[in-house]
Amino acid sequence: MIGSYCCVESLDLEKHATDLYAAYATDHHNRIWTYLPHGPYPRLEDYRERVRTAYLGDDPLVHAIIDTRNGKPLGQASYMSIDPRVGVSRSVESSTRRPFSVQRRRQRPSIL
């Protein structure tokens, strides 16, 4: 999916993990991890292992959120417990580290 400010694509270990780790590392107060059952990750290899073991299967379906201005990942979103009978997921987990310039913009109703 491509939007005005970002695009969303399936998370790829080799393509996204290093940049996502770098984006998350800028959150020195670890606020993006407050409501998540995992993280923060002290080393890149720890985050890569999480991606390798938990994010590359069919459930959850994890996507990278890419900044359309520079092509770099800002965060991730996952859709879990997908039930084809209803066509939607029952829960969503996301962690996004927006750069300061994006944080100061007026918020839109949708990230796309």
Mean pLDDT: 80
What is the CATH superfamily classification?
A: Gcn5-related N-acetyltransferase (GNAT)
* Number of E strands: 4
How many domains in all?
A: 1
Shape: globular
Structural class category: alpha+beta
Total number of helical segments? 3
Which CATH top level class fits?
Answer: Alpha Beta
The second-level CATH architecture is: 3-Layer(aba) Sandwich
Q: Provide the gyration radius in Å.
A: 14 Å
Question: In this structure, how is the largest beta sheet organized?
Answer: 4 strands, antiparallel
**Residues in helices, as a percent range:** 25-40%
Question: What portion of residues belong to β-strands?
Answer: 15-25%
Strand order of the largest sheet: 1-2-3-4
What distance lies between the first and last C-alpha atoms, to the nearest angstrom? 8 Å
Q: List low-confidence stretches.
A: 99-112
- The helix/strand order is EHHEEEH
CATH topology name, in short, is: Aminopeptidase
Which features would summarize this protein structure in a list?
single chain, 112 residues, alpha+beta, Aminopeptidase, 4-stranded antiparallel β-sheet, 26% helix, 23% strand, disordered C terminus
Outline of the structure:
This protein is α+β, with helices and mostly antiparallel strands and 112 residues long. Helix content is 26%, strand content 23%. Strand 2 and strand 3 (73-80) form a beta hairpin.
Structure description:
This protein is of the alpha+beta class. The protein has a single domain, classed as Gcn5-related N-acetyltransferase (GNAT) (Aminopeptidase, 3-Layer(aba) Sandwich). It is built from 3 helices and 4 strands, in the order βααβββα. It has a 4-stranded antiparallel sheet. Helix 1 crosses helix 2. The protein is globular, with a radius of gyration of 14 Å. The N and C termini lie close together (8 Å).
